[in-house]
Write a structure and sequence with these properties.
The radius of gyration is 19 Å and the shape is elongated. It contains nine helices and eleven strands. Helix 4 packs parallel to helix 5. The strands form two sheets. The chain has a six-stranded mixed β-sheet with strand order 3-8-7-4-5-6, sandwiched between helices. Strands 2-1-9-10-11 form a five-stranded parallel β-sheet. About 2% of the residues have low confidence. The protein is an alpha/beta fold. Helices cover 32% and strands 22% of the residues.
Amino acid sequence: MMRLLVTRPEPEATRTAERLRELGHEPVTAPMLTSVFLDPPMPAIDPVAILLTSLNGVRGLMRWPVPEAWFALPVLAVGDRTAEAAREAGFASVSSADGDGVALAALAMERLEPDAGPLLYPAAVDRAGTWTETLTGAGHALELVEVYRMEPAASLPDSVVAALREDRVDGVLVYSPRTATALSGCVDRLDPRPDIDRLPVYALSPNVAAAMRFGDVHIAEKPTDDALLALIPASMGTSPSGAR
């Protein structure tokens, strides 16, 4: 059993904690980001498809009075969990890119004609990658609407700080570059700073790993929840693969 720090936002942190318990580990949650929905006006467009890169994108979309016709549109989601959330919201034609933004752009270019019409993308204020430029460069009209932002935590919970200082954390799960930056900043502001430069950190992607400023970082083979959890050794005596 490992005691693992889960840093992703709620409600995803609770879901990951439940999966870790099923795997026989002890999770400790300390979300480093909090979702804030912006509620912009619904765009006056007739989209031919909807692109989704996160559960918050689904949530932000559903805060609008979504026209009934939109529920029949093709929905392209970055991964399986986002696709599942779109189906639960009532969308009938949902496909998963099973990857990251690059994979989502590739799926969109495979499925959609450049001159078919606008693609609606309910997005975060802070976004990583250049996949949207790939789409627009290929001739697709992208209607990007910022529907939420992620507020970074100012500090770690006292109980987590104590656990880090007392070497009672066996690993850290990090799912996004912004989470990695917020977590690293919280650690850097501690005085004294815990000696955690060799603490195993399980990162969802190379971009996440690059934003970490501490730890022995291991990178998932694919940017999916299953691939990240597969990095975690079944026992303390097993070494995970994919170390940076």
